[in-house]
Structure formats: structure tokens, C-alpha cells
Design brief:
The structure holds two protein chains of two kinds. By secondary structure, chain A is mostly helical. Chain A has one domain. In chain A, 58% of the residues lie in helices and 2% in strands. Chain A is built from seven helices and two strands; from the N terminus they run ααααββααα. In chain A, a hairpin with a 6-residue loop joins β1 and β2. In chain A, 45% of the residues are buried. By secondary structure, chain B is of the alpha/beta class. Chain B has a single domain, classed as 3-Layer(aba) Sandwich (Glutaredoxin), CATH 3.40.30.10. In chain B, 42% of the residues lie in helices and 19% in strands. Chain B is built from six helices and five strands; from the N terminus they run ααβαβαβαββα. Chain B has a five-stranded mixed β-sheet, with helices on one face. In chain B, a hairpin with a 5-residue loop joins β4 and β5. The radius of gyration of chain B is 19 Å and the shape is globular. Classes of the chains: A mainly alpha, B alpha/beta.
Chain lengths: 257, 156
């Protein structure tokens, strides 16, 4: 389908928006939901741009001699530079409350990834290696049934996102905990799915393993820091992504600071 | 200081080296629909990629096809160059797919993709099973998930 990537991007952005709004309604560190949405969207867009340039360089194509190709995101985005750029950009927006910013965006970002994966049917990007399992799916006109890897990944990521929202609401985890769980969760899911996926070059499994390790380190660091201080530092007091004190209105999404 | 001197010496040697030019091979030979159909019906899974040197999306997918052709030696890759000059086509192959195991042929009028069931646009990628049946026709740029999925499909 010609506009499959656009449709999938809209669904991912929609999921990001919906979860931030849901978190706002539940009072999870979201007085600046609109700021967070803008920041996450900008970080994602910049990540895609850098990832696209990275993929071009990897393929031996210079973005200086072929600048038009930067727009052809379908031709590939390098995962590592894209993810690192998105995380660093988001961190730079919320540098005065770095971990609170990451915690605030983490569930919505994981939900956006889930929506992206879940909409894989739009672009023939769902299926992986052959399988005889009852829920395996065949391509049109084929008798070879395959793992619907995109759906597995969608469901696993959705479970992580939902769990994060609930944990943030009910447990008030220490600062950094939600970010660490999200990072480790996404890393583990990508690692688990990789053997079932079909690809030409293979995915950056080392990067997924590194993300998992870093995520776990953040979780442990967050937990031990909270324990050392004898109390938890939960996130609800966070808020202005630029460090400004938030205004608390009835509808946080109408807040325009 | 020694490092600086060595660097300057290297630069001088580099500058003094004879100028090299990219070797541009011969243009892909002109073909017919029957010849392309014979390639498809040869009992081997086949990918036919329709491209042109003036097509920017074709440039972007060429490295991916190059990798795929190396990764799937059991699949025959055919590059069908359309509505192009021989010189430009040869330069494109030299720049993007010089060492790829892809058999390039040329269709100056661009009629063969239409007869194969595609269209006039480029790029188009046809995936054929070993029995000659078509598994998928990708209109526009082919991305890695689609390429990997249908290569796995036709290679079975």
C-alpha cells in the first residue's frame, strides 16, 4: 500500500497522544502533557531523520550528493542512531528534570511502538519465520503459515505500556523506575522477537541487549537510591518540561505553557 | 612532530597517486518480453526489479537489493532497466550494484513491466516462485521487511 508508513505513523502518534492524555486524567506527572507530546514527537522525528541518514551512510550513499533520498524513509532507518537520537533529544528538552521527563513519556512511547508494530498488516510487515502453531498466518496465495511477529511484539509492548501506567498510578515508583522498566522491556521484547523475524542484514541484537542491560541498571539504581534515602521520590510533582513550575488546571491538555 | 611528518608524507603520496576513475561497464543488453519470461520460467525462484538511473527511489533501494542478492544465492535476481540510456544505466550499475549477482537487461520502451502485470512506474519488484507463479508485485520502493518476507516465501 502506498501510504502504509504514513498510516502506521499516524496510529503510533495517536497512541502516544492517547496514553499521555490517559496519564493526564489519572494524575501521572502530566500537568504538561502537551509539552511532553511535542517533545516526544520532536524527538521521534529527529530520531527518524538521523536514523535515515545513518542508513544511507551504511548503504554507501552520501546524504550530501543524494539529499532527496533522506525523505525515502521506506528505504530504511538505522535503529541505533535513531533510538539514541530520540532518547538524547527528549533528554535535552527535559534536562532540568531528566528522569522525570523520561518517566512521564515512557508508557506513551512504548504504546506508540506497540501501535506501530500492531499496524504491520497495513504494509505486509507482520509475518516472520514459518510456523505450524494454530494462530500462524499465511501470506495471500501461500500455504506456508508464519509467526505473526508484528502482533506478538504489539501485544507484548502494549502489556508493558499498560503495566507502566498502572504501576505509576498505584505504586508511585521512584524516579527513573518507569524509564528503566520501559527500556529493559523494549530491549527484551526486541531480543525475543529477533529470531522469529525475517531480515536481510539481521537486526542490531547487541543494541537490544545493551538497552536491556542499561534499563535494568537504571531500575536497580533507582530502587537502591530510593531505599538509601528511606523514601521514594515519585514523579507526580514533576512537570514543566522546561523546568517551569506547572499550572494545574482542570484539563491538563488545555494547558499551554 | 614525527606523526605530523608522516601524515604530510602520506598526503603527498596520496596526491601523487595516479588519478583513478570509476570503471563503468558495458550497458545492459536489450531484451524482449519472451526472454524475460524465459528467465522467470527457468525453475528457479526469481526476483525481477524494474529500475531506471533517473529514478531516485531506485537509487535508494539498490543497496538493499545488492545485499539481498548476496544473501539469497538460490534466488535469481534480474534487473530490468527501462526507459534509460545505455550509458546512464551502466553508470548506475557501476555506482550501486557493481558486485551484486544481478543479471541486468534493458527495455528501452518500458513495455515489459506492463506485460508482466506491473505498470509504467518505477521501481517495481516482481517476486516469482520456482514454478513461475507470481508471489507478489511491489509497486514503488521495496523495504526490507517486504523484501525479506517474499524472498523467504519464494525461496521455499
Amino acid at each position: 500500500m502506498a501510504f502504509d508508513l504514513l498510516i502506521r505513523a499516524f496510529l503510533a502518534v495517536g497512541a502516544l497522544w492517547l496514553v499521555l492524555r490517559w496519564e493526564a486524567k489519572r494524575g501521572n506527572a502530566v500537568e504538561c502533557a502537551r509539552d511532553l507530546f511535542d517533545a516526544a514527537l520532536t524527538a521521534g522525528a529527529l530520531g527518524i531523520l538521523v536514523g535515515r541518514i545513518g542508513a544511507m551512510l551504511h548503504a554507501g550513499v552520501s546524504p550530501l550528493t543524494d539529499p532527496g533520498q533522506i525523505l525515502l524513509v521506506r528505504s530504511g532507518i538505522a535503529t541505533v542512531p535513531a533510538a539514541v537520537t530520540a532518547v538524547v533529544t527528549l533528554g535535552s528538552f527535559g534536562r532540568r528534570h531528566l528522569w522525570q521527563t523520561y518517566d512521564a513519556v515512557a508508557p506513551a512511547a512504548v504504546a506508540a511502538l506497540s501501535a506501530w508494530q500492531g499496524s504491520c498488516f497495513v504494509g505486509d510487515a507482520c509475518l516472520g519465520i514459518p510456523s505450524d502453531l494454530p494462530w500462524a498466518i499465511a501470506l495471500s496465495g501461500s500455504d506456508v503459515t508464519r509467526h505473526p511477529v508484528g502482533i506478538y511484539e504489539c501485544l507484548a509492548l502494549a502489556a508493558v505500556a499498560f503495566g507502566l501506567v498502572v504501576v505509576k498510578q498505584t505504586r508511585r515508583p521512584p524516579v527513573g523506575m518507569a524509564s528503566g522498566i520501559a527500556l529493559a522491556g523494549v530491549g527484551v521484547i526486541r531480543l525475543a522477537m529477533e529470531p522469529m523475524k525475517l531480515s536481510i542484514d539481521g537486526g542490531p541484537t547487541w543494541f537490544y541487549a545493551l538497552a536491556t542491560a542499561v534499563g535494568l541498571a537504571v531500575v536497580i539504581g533507582s530502587w537502591s537510591r530510593a531505599k538509601r534515602h528511606g523514601s521514594i521520590e515519585s514523579g507526580p510533582e514533576f512537570v514543566g518540561i522546561d523546568g517551569a513550575e506547572p499550572r494545574v488546571d482542570d484539563d491538563p491538555l488545555d494547558d499551554d505553557h | 612532530m614525527t606523526i605530523l611528518a608522516a601524515a604530510i608524507a602520506l598526503m603527498v603520496v596520496g596526491c601523487a597517486s595516479p588519478e583513478t576513475t570509476d570503471p563503468v561497464g558495458s550497458p545492459p543488453p536489450e531484451t524482449t518480453f519472451a526472454e524475460v519470461q524465459a528467465l522467470i520460467d527457468n525453475g528457479i525462484p526469481t526476483v525481477v526489479n524494474v529500475w531506471a538511473s533517473w529514478c531516485i527511489p531506485c537509487r535508494s533501494e539498490a543497496p538493499l537489493l545488492d545485499n539481498a542478492a548476496h544473501a539469497y544465492p538460490a534466488v535469481e535476481f534480474v534487473g530490468l532497466n527501462v526507459r534509460d540510456s545505455g550509458e546512464d544505466a551502466a553508470a548506475f550499475i557501476a555506482e550501486f550494484m557493481s558486485d551484486a549477482p544481478i543479471e541486468h537487461v534493458s527495455d528501452r520502451d518500458g513495455q515489459i513491466p506492463i506485460e508482466l502485470g506491473g505498470g509504467r512506474g518505477v521501481p517495481i519488484t516482481f517476486f516469482y516462485r520456482a514454478d513461475g507463479s507470481v508471489a507478489h508485485i511491489q509497486l514503488g520502493v521495496v523495504d526490507e521487511p517486504v523484501l525479506a518476507t517474499y524472498l523467504d516465501e519464494i525461496a521455499r
